[in-house]
Structure prediction request, 746 residues.
Amino acid sequence: MSNDDARDHEPADAPSPGASQTISGIGSDYYTEEIHGPLEYFTIDAFELAEGETIRELEIAYATFGELNDAKDNAILFPHMYSGTSKDMEMYVGEGLALDPSEYFIILPNQIGNGLSTSPHNVGGPMGQGDFPDIRISDDIRAQHRLVTEKFRIEELQLVLGWSMGAQQTYEWAVRYPEMVRRAAPIGGTARNPVLSGLLVDALIMALETDPNWDDGYYENQRDLRRGLRHHARIWALMGTSAELWREESWRDAGFSSLDDFLFNLWDNWFLPMDPNDLRCMAWKWKHADVGRITDGDLAAALDRIEAKTYVMPFEKDYVFPVADCQREAEMISDSEFHPIPSPWGHFGMFGFDPSDFEFIDERLGELLAEPV
Amino acid sequence: MSNDDARDHEPADAPSPGASQTISGIGSDYYTEEIHGPLEYFTIDAFELAEGETIRELEIAYATFGELNDAKDNAILFPHMYSGTSKDMEMYVGEGLALDPSEYFIILPNQIGNGLSTSPHNVGGPMGQGDFPDIRISDDIRAQHRLVTEKFRIEELQLVLGWSMGAQQTYEWAVRYPEMVRRAAPIGGTARNPVLSGLLVDALIMALETDPNWDDGYYENQRDLRRGLRHHARIWALMGTSAELWREESWRDAGFSSLDDFLFNLWDNWFLPMDPNDLRCMAWKWKHADVGRITDGDLAAALDRIEAKTYVMPFEKDYVFPVADCQREAEMISDSEFHPIPSPWGHFGMFGFDPSDFEFIDERLGELLAEPV
Prediction:
């Protein structure tokens, strides 16, 4: 990959002012292939969760780009963040980019609970809405492992990467299946969720559950919870960014004309169409992420299992997954490099609102993929 | 003042695990002189607010320490922060400390809306609860000015200081009455509220207003809003501290035995007894603080009015009033020094949970008071 190519790339799929989400996305129209697809589905008949319950006919929705080669050794797995879908990270996939589909077979799985895979809002019967069981990161990774090994017969992944909850999944992959993961790029996330990050989850869940129409999760229409969803969105605006972004009004560079424009048409626009039970499911999973569960609570022992060449890539001004928390984990991984991403956007630097953030990340991914392992 | 004396001082009045607030403070028992007094009261018959309404019989509750000398030139004014009262900052007043009542006459005024001065929950008639008008920092400072000049006939203040909203009031004093303020110490706060800090206010207000029992502020009992109050408390725990505090578990050094102990017995304990309308009143005031209103929106012109020797003292890891925002303002003040406070506690370093924070602040105040002006 040439760096010049990357610089020419416009991350056009980043959330932008006036995205169609607002118009078409409210309520039940939001979780559709029209918006997030096209998708394929991998079904597991009876999937036992880490917490004990069994989901019947668990469906993992996923998208793929490129072709799996005959040796089945050109695969990359790229799970997504909180509130996201496979669609959201497609901006990092393209010819001339590090994740080049003419070279790699790139799988983008959807999290359990994200609204496209099996989720509180789309599952019927005894597990719908407020009855949906707690899901752990390890559940997703075990389901993704079956997708990768049973559906595609892949035995090694050239790269697992992800942002935020995608980083949590990346770490879980590298610790749980170290022999399969050649390279790992956890971006803006940690292997054990920081306490601070868990407090953010608490605040986000409280915003949803305190809504007068929450009704223990048995509401009729997600739109009735728009107050809680807006509150949730505004907490994200506060914590998902950085002091510098607000002080310097760097959001203007991304095309927002005023503070209200930015708050309504980015943050509210992003979260208002979503299902609160689905968000709550992902939030609980995020809060409880901890690879140390694989090694009886010993984080260092867990991270010592990692065989992958690992680029630990925090955002320098991230409030949610602070850079020092990421660095501490990087030091516990035998073959790791530490590449903090300079961005005024804090945690949300991943979207490439500042094109130089996108370029920085894409370049590091290109370097990592070029590393011999 | 000797530094050794300061180091020996134990800030025993900081909020602590198991403070009596929980037991005695729920609901209407909280805003009493038993907990926050003793207090005196200054009454203004008809006080016209910046936003236009008139409060009849506005009462400013205040506490004093020491004696006003015959020349009336030994006075210090020390307003308080959000959710606070005059009682909360008494820990900085004492023999051997910078604010020594054997030398100075120290006035601690209570904010309009804080629950002890005229406030939504204690005013009857047409302005109670959800009908209480919006109050501005300038309203408080004009009322305090009348207290200082009419009640005590004071024409100069040796020092005005305060933390957070107390810093906002300090700036308003120094800009509005520059000829009266000899020295100023805004601690962990700014002259114009940062956008980020306003977003925090929005989140705090949403936490209260989204409570199912909010009822536009016309609830019967503040205890019915405990869910919103707890949510509000947890957002403060998240934003009022620093990543380091959580990563290093520095809260253990302050005597908390577990994370739950810390969350329930500091944060929830602090906010649960309070009146949501009173909090909302202070929060709106905080969000809209801006000394530039005195100079047609020109912040630099406003800060250029300051004649006081000014120590700008942000907390190095403060999320709410970021250090760079404070520094930018310090550079606009002609006779200012910049003294960032190193503390893992972020915005809440003021309480001296780490005694070295208290000592640092007390020492700087001693130096400032020793400055010739």
Remarks:
- The two ends of chain B are 18 Å apart (CA to CA).
- The beta strands of chain B are 40-48, 54-65, 75-77, 105-109, 159-163, 183-187, 309-312, 336-338.
- Chain B touches chain A through 33 residues (CB under 8 Å).
- Residues 23 and 355 of chain B are 26 Å apart (CA to CA).
